[in-house]
Amino acid sequence: MRKDKLQAVKLRKQGYSYNEIGDRLKVPKSTLSYWLAGIEISQKAKKRLASRVFEGSVKGLINRNRNQTKLAKERAAKIRSLAKKEFSILKKDKLFLVGISLYWAEGYKKGAQGSKWKAIDFTNSDPKMVVIMVRFFKKFLKIKEDKIKVQLIAHKNVDIEKSVTYWSSLTNIPQDQFIKTCCSVSKSSQGKRDEDSLTHGTVHIRINDVKLFFKVIGWIDGLKSDYS
């Protein structure tokens, strides 16, 4: 029997995989399959093989996640760059300029700074401002109405049912697109500030779309660049 075949049999009985044996002995996997087809291995050897398979699966998953993260970052950078270039054309529209300025001031942006959650979220209690932003999202993101979600943040003085009806009527967003209302006390006031002025609470206007989120961030980049 060939020396390398004897070594292959010995390694296989110790629980080495075909890939490991092939790398050590420089023997093709097809040859090993022929040599080792009838070799019986111990339970200890089987455990080693199973452990190696598990480790390989975990490493493969980690590598795939890294590759996906890299590709996602590249896609986001491309969307953001193209949107930044669009700004010089879109800024001629007054609604666009007002909308992107308001989002820069009041919208969620942490997703562009490393936070895992990457979605459009504009928060305010001013009815006119909220209406402007809904119009802005519909016109420039070409978003379908059923993709827009609303969450009401209600303080103790707010009538939730009336407030949901109020915001739904104001924005033309159906009530079945309002997600669970959050009842809270402002951290800044710690319950001491008079919140009666927030008659209808505060609303979050949300669009869960990563691509559109980075488009908005790109427009903000354009705004910053244009007025710097």
Characterize the main sheet.
4 strands, mixed
Q: In sequence order, what are the helices and strands, one letter per element?
A: HHHHHEHEHEEH
Question: Strands of the largest sheet, in order across it?
Answer: 1-4-2-3
Radius of gyration from CA coordinates: 29 Å
What's the tally of helices? 8
How much β-strand is present in the residues?
A: 5-15%
How would you describe this structure to a colleague?
The protein has 228 residues and is an alpha+beta fold. The chain has a domain at 93-227. Helix content is 57%, strand content 10%. It has eight helices and four strands. The protein has helices at 3-13, 18-25, 29-35, 43-90, 94-106, 127-140, 160-171, 210-227; strands spanning 120-124, 149-154, 178-183, 202-207. Strands 1-4-2-3 form a four-stranded mixed β-sheet. α4 crosses α8 (210-227). The longest helix has 48 residues, at 43-90. It is elongated, with a radius of gyration of 29 Å. The N and C termini lie far apart (78 Å).
Layout of secondary structure:
Blueprint: H1 3-13, H2 18-25, H3 29-35, H4 43-90, H5 94-106, E1 120-124, H6 127-140, E2 149-154, H7 160-171, E3 178-183, E4 202-207, H8 210-227
Parallel strand pairs: 2-3
Antiparallel strand pairs: 1-4, 2-4
Helix pairs in contact: 1-2, 4-8, 5-6, 5-8
